[in-house]
Amino acid sequence: MKSKSKVNKNNVGFLYIMPWILGFLVFQLYPLLSSLFYSFTDYSITNKPEFVGLSNYITMFTEDNLFYQSLWNTLKYVFMSVPMKIVTALIVAVILNKKLKGINMYRTIYYIPSIFGGSVAISILWRFLFMDSGIVNRVLSILHIPSVQWLSNPKIALFTLSLLSVWQFGSSMVLFLAALKQVPGELYEASHIDGAGSIQRFFCITLPMITPVLFFNILMQLVNAFQDFTGAFVITNGGPLNSTYLFALKLYDESFSYYKMGYASALSWVLFILIIGFTAIFFRFSDAVTYYEDGGDF
Known about the structure:
Blueprint: H1 4-38, E1 41-42, E2 50-51, H2 55-62, H3 65-96, H4 103-115, H5 120-130, H6 135-142, H7 157-167, H8 170-181, H9 185-193, H10 198-209, H11 211-226, H12 230-236, H13 247-257, H14 261-284, H15 286-289
Antiparallel strand pairs: 1-2
Helix pairs in contact: 1-14, 3-7, 3-8, 3-11, 3-13, 4-8, 5-12, 8-11, 11-14, 13-14
């Protein structure tokens, strides 16, 4: 039988975690289950939900052309922005890992854009930079380079939008920098004695040793990219010709422009399943590409 003091300690422990439990139940679990229920209903904010079975999903996959276009745009956006962001963050982290004068100041400067990640103000700034008469085209004209329709050309508008995500690489950079600090110096010393060059040391020592952090960064940025909304909404509002109409923007329109909350809930579950699917694939192949000193799993 448990002693009274042990019971009291358990009660104190439950009391400390109660705010998190309540927050999880009210703000995460309840909305998750509610959206699952609403996805099988015809529901707007002003009317009571009416059960319609799989009607929302059938409409989505058979009648809604914008669903497929937004999904395709999102996949292109993810596979453009995530690799560029990861590569940029890794290159900058390797540079900032060197012992240079004033290196702490440079690390702070490179991290600053991530502080404003997803903000409306930064998106507005990006629009003014890349609009047809924006600063970027003015600089190009000074250099006698033809102007580019960064946001009005359907072929490159999505790429321009992805550059905003790439520019905010600070969080990934910090994680890479922390991982680089943990690589044993003895490995570099041994490779230097063996005559290995800097490129060989990077691909044979540095990259394998930081694969757990690389895996984590790719996974987190993948999840975030699937849910990106602010840039597409503020900068282009899905245009031109729906070329930047991302899935999150589609979900927003169905919810708050057309008030189809049931249909929007169905869309959110498709996005959720899509993210879970990509995450499962990553974990399935993680052992083959990730190195751990203790041989453990991610």
